[in-house]
C-alpha cells in the first residue's frame, strides 16, 4: 500500500468517526403536534388562567428565545434557583396576569444526545399589551418507571397555565429522530 492510500483511509476513518460522534451527541427533535395531548392545543389561541412569568436565558437563541413558566410548573424551583445564582443564566423579563393570550404554534419533542432525556415543548406567541413574545413552554414528563417497564403510555402532563384542571391520563409520544 502506498502512503497516499494509507492517508486516504485514515482521513476516511476520522471523518466517519466525527460523523458518528456528531450524530450521537446532537440534540434530536421531532414534531409531536399531531399526538395527544398536543393536537388539542396546537394551532389554537388559548387564554392563560393564572399568572405566568416570562424569562430569557443568558445565551438564548432561535425563533423562540423566551421561556414561559408558572408556579405550578414542575421545574419552577429550578427556574427560581437559576435566576438567583451569583451569575444568573436566566433573567426574569416580566409577569403576565391571568387573561393573557397565547397562540400555540407547534409542539416539539427534544431529546438530548448525551443524556438521552426528552423534553416536549410547546412554542408560540404570547400577546400582551400590544407586544408579541416568542415563547417556549416545556410541558410533559416521562414516568421513568413506566418507561423501564416498557409501557408505551408513559408521559404525563402537569396542569398548564391555559388548563382549568390537571389531565391525569398518560400518553404515548415517539422518540425524537436522529436527523
Terminal Cα span: 37 Å
Mean pLDDT, all residues: 85
Number of helices: 3
Rg (C-alpha, Å): 20 Å
What order do the helices and strands follow?
A: HEEEEHEEEEEHEE
Question: Structural class, from helix and strand content?
Answer: alpha+beta
Word description of this protein:
The protein has one domain (27-171). It has helices at residues 3-25, 76-83, 144-148; strands at 28-31, 45-47, 52-57, 66-69, 90-96, 101-111, 118-128, 131-138, 141-142, 155-157, 167-171. The model has no long low-confidence stretch (mean pLDDT 85). Strand 6 and strand 7 (118-128) form a beta hairpin. The chain has 179 residues and is an alpha+beta fold. The protein is globular, with a radius of gyration of 20 Å. Keywords: Membrane, Transmembrane, Transmembrane helix. The chain crosses the membrane at residues 6-25.
Summarize the structure.
The chain crosses the membrane at residues 6-25. By secondary structure, this protein is of the alpha+beta class. The protein has 3 helices and 11 strands.
SSE topology:
Layout: H1 3-25, E1 28-31, E2 45-47, E3 52-57, E4 66-69, H2 76-83, E5 90-96, E6 101-111, E7 118-128, E8 131-138, E9 141-142, H3 144-148, E10 155-157, E11 167-171
Considering the chains and any ligands shown, give keywords for the structure.
three-stranded antiparallel beta sheet, single chain, transmembrane, 3 helices, 11 strands, 20% helix
